[in-house]
Write a structure and sequence with these properties.
The chain is of the alpha+beta class. It is built from 6 helices and 13 strands.
Length: 263
């Protein structure tokens, strides 16, 4: 595996391991040990892969499991925006592989879907380190050659879609460059308006009825937009609600996909 030309030029580095528990956990462990960041940690297999809210992420060999470690990526009030930066970067990497296929889209806040089926997910975790710096790890899980067949929602992979570029190496080469590009546009939060605009251009469900489950409560309404903090704006008649976390369903697209989110 290797990083793209832009990532190399920007002094990003790469560690590849055969098997780990979790790339996110390993990257955070390196941060606590003094790692300076701009580091990609990739594993060919994860034994304890995690999705959002601690959900299990199936991690057999053949898919991409990659975590990007950044140190002091932005002021604390902007760190949650990295979730959207990462999703726009990943969507652009998928486009570099699949072309401008209209079936590609992003589901709030950062799942990439293809024709309504989950192709990849992102887990963002940040932690204040003992030295006063903040470590953020963006974990990318991309279904390249396999996808779980027993999920309660639709899933797919690049090989099933039908592209010759279906290896983890193909994705990382492009993703590492699109991340550099989107981080540059984001500019530690100063450019989030542009990231938000790009995210909305490919967002699924905007202007449509959706449901958001929060514990034992389910909210219904029209997905109006995301605000300047990335919160989902749900309209119910004359009322609007800004949602920071929940499980989102897109009934109009016949998705049974349940994604835990934290904006």
């Amino acid at each position: 595996m290797e990083l793209g030309a832009s990532a190399k030029a920007a002094s990003y580095r790469l560690i590849v391991r055969d098997s780990v528990g979790s790339t996110n956990e390993d990257a955070m462990r390196l941060a606590r040990g003094g790692e300076s960041g701009r580091l990609w940690l990739v594993a060919r297999e994860q034994l304890q892969g995690r999705g959002r809210r601690g959900r299990t992420w199936s991690s057999p060999p053949g898919n991409l499991y990659a975590s990007l470690l950044l140190i002091d990526a932005a002021p604390s009030e902007h760190l949650a925006e990295l979730s959207f930066v990462a999703s726009v970067a990943l969507l652009n990497a998928m486009r570099a592989i699949l072309g401008n296929d209209p079936r590609l889209g992003v589901k709030w806040p950062n799942d990439i879907l293809f024709d309504g089926a989950k192709l990849s997910g992102i887990l963002l975790e940040c932690s204040l380190l003992p030295n006063g710096t903040t470590a953020c790890v963006a974990g990318f899980g991309v279904n390249c050659r396999y996808h779980p067949a027993t999920l309660p929602y639709a899933a797919t992979d690049l090989a099933s879609i039908g592209t010759a570029l279906s290896a983890p190496e193909d994705v990382l080469l492009r993703l590492s460059d699109t991340v550099v590009e989107m981080l540059g546009i984001w500019a530690k939060g100063a450019g989030f308006a542009e990231i938000r605009s790009r995210w909305l251009a490919d967002a699924l469900g905007v202007g449509e009825p959706i449901r958001v489950a929060q514990g034992n409560t389910t909210l219904s309404g029209i997905f109006e937009t995301i605000d300047g903090r990335g919160r989902l704006i749900l309209r119910d008649g004359p009322n609007t609600r800004a949602i920071e976390a929940g499980d989102v369903f897109l009934p109009s697209r016949s998705l049974t996909h349940q994604a835990a989110v934290s904006a």
